[in-house]
Write a structure and sequence with these properties.
Strand order of the largest sheet: 4-3-2-1-5
Order of helices and strands: HHHHHEEHEEEHH
Number of strands: 5
Radius of gyration: 24 Å
Number of helices: 8
Distance between the termini: 18 Å
Structural class: alpha+beta
Amino acid sequence: MKYLRRRFLTGLLILLPAVVTGWIMWKVFTSVDSVLQPIQERYPIIDFPGVGFAIVILIIMFVGVFAGNFIGRRIIAQGERILYKLPFIRRIYIAVKELSQVFLAGRKMVFKEVVVIRYPHPGTFALGFVTETGTRTFNEAVGTEVLNIFIPTTPNPTSGFLLFVPAADVMRLPVSVEEGLKMVVSGGVFVPGPLVDDTATPGDAESS
């Protein structure tokens, strides 16, 4: 029974990520593909799977090319200035833009390194990401050098909160930002190689 249970869990661990990923991609595809549904109902000649998805991809590509030239940049900048003047919409736009640049544009410099701090009380620890060092004015105000630490929530790392932690109380982890994000998304199930206890045996893991 132990052998069968182990093989079943192995198969489940292999299939589950693939099935869930495929399901998410299918939902995204069908949602995007249905954008042109009103037009397709009016003109049945273009009513076949994939048309809406292909057109949306072409529109995104066109906007990317358009934003790459001088005129496009000027028009987009003018549009952003208008959005920045709208009180409620401004906050939503800025938040979505910043998150998009972090997770889609590869701005790895936003999260500089992975750290551990004592939080929410001295007996526990929280995983965080250094975003910036404290300014001289802020350091002088609190009387010590601080680091700006972003503490993400699990399993959604796009939300969280900001802490200003004395640099002396910050413990660095020898892992990449990508590995740190994987730890957050997996709820601690994923553990990067440098943090794995190589002395543990399969028997120890089984008994635990």
